[in-house]
Amino acid sequence: MMNAKGDSMIEYYARRAAEYERVYSKPERQVDLQTLKEFLGGVFACERVLEIACGTGYWTQFMAKSATAILATDFNSDVIDLARQKVFGACRVHFTEADAYSLDTVSGDYTAGFHGFWWSHLPKNKMRLFLSAFHSKLPTGAKVVMIDNQYVNGSSSPISRHDADGNTYQLRRLDDGSEHEVLKNFPSDEDIISSLAGFATEIGVRRLHYFWIAEYTTKEMPNTGFNLMNGR
Ligand SMILES: C[S@@+](CC[C@H](N)C(=O)[O-])C[C@H]1O[C@@H](n2cnc3c(N)ncnc32)[C@H](O)[C@@H]1O
């Protein structure tokens, strides 16, 4: 897992592992969070799910209520160690370290894909590289669901800057006092739909107040021109 060494996002989430789930305690978000939990508890009924950037397995535990199997992946072993401690009932849940931009440690037979709060961290110039890697692990016709944050004044960390590619950033402080600049994008429906061009059909985007949910079906893999071995 050396190829992403020095990635500030990875280092930030490794340091944040133990305090990560506090974000799910924000009182104003509880109604929307309950909607997400109930939705994810049923949307993957009887599916074999590949999960990207699973973090502490917070969403894995809800998908496990009806999925048959889940391979939950993340770059950071620190968060996977926490995720393994969760309870998953009868669902067969396995974990593996994997860089989302290559997924070269992932093999298996999946019918569905999921990522939560990952899309917002994708730099625009790596979006298609990620989608190529992710979709290379899924069959045509697979169900994909993703969930992420809406920007809400007073609840979200303020945007600290924009870059030339149109990415936005936030400054975040951890319990140890360290401050981190984190790439965090808040896409419109059009942004999501255009990013998925060539990869997806039957795309639907639903907006809650604090979160968005997107669902689609995978299309046959396009020839993206990316070489997954060295295309970063
Ligand atoms: C916002 S957290 C989301 C965690 C979890 N999905 C959730 O919603 O609670 C983003 C996750 O992405 C992981 N991550 C960052 N860069 C990654 C990469 N290149 N490949 C895979 N995971 C990565 C971090 O370790 C972190 O767990």
Question: What structural keywords apply?
Answer:
binds S-adenosylmethionine, 232 residues, Rossmann fold, disordered C terminus, three-stranded antiparallel sheet, seven-stranded mixed sheet, alpha/beta
Offer a quick outline of the entry.
The chain contains six helices and ten strands; from the N terminus they run H-H-E-H-E-H-E-E-H-E-E-E-E-H-E-E.
Helix-strand layout with pairing:
Elements: H1 8-16, H2 30-43, E1 48-52, H3 60-63, E2 69-74, H4 77-83, E3 92-97, E4 112-116, H5 127-135, E5 143-149, E6 159-162, E7 168-173, E8 179-183, H6 189-195, E9 200-207, E10 211-218
Parallel strand pairs: 1-2, 1-4, 2-3, 4-5
Antiparallel strand pairs: 5-10, 6-7, 7-8, 9-10
Bound molecules: S-adenosylmethionine.
Stretches where pLDDT falls below 50 for ≥5 residues? 226-232
What is the CATH homology-level superfamily?
A: Vaccinia Virus protein VP39
Query: Percent of residues in helical segments?
Result: 10-25%
Give me the Rg, rounded.
Answer: 17 Å
Give the strand content: 25-35%
Helix and strand content put the structural class at: alpha/beta
- Which CATH architecture would you pick? 3-Layer(aba) Sandwich
CATH topology: Rossmann fold
Biggest beta-sheet profile? 7 strands, mixed
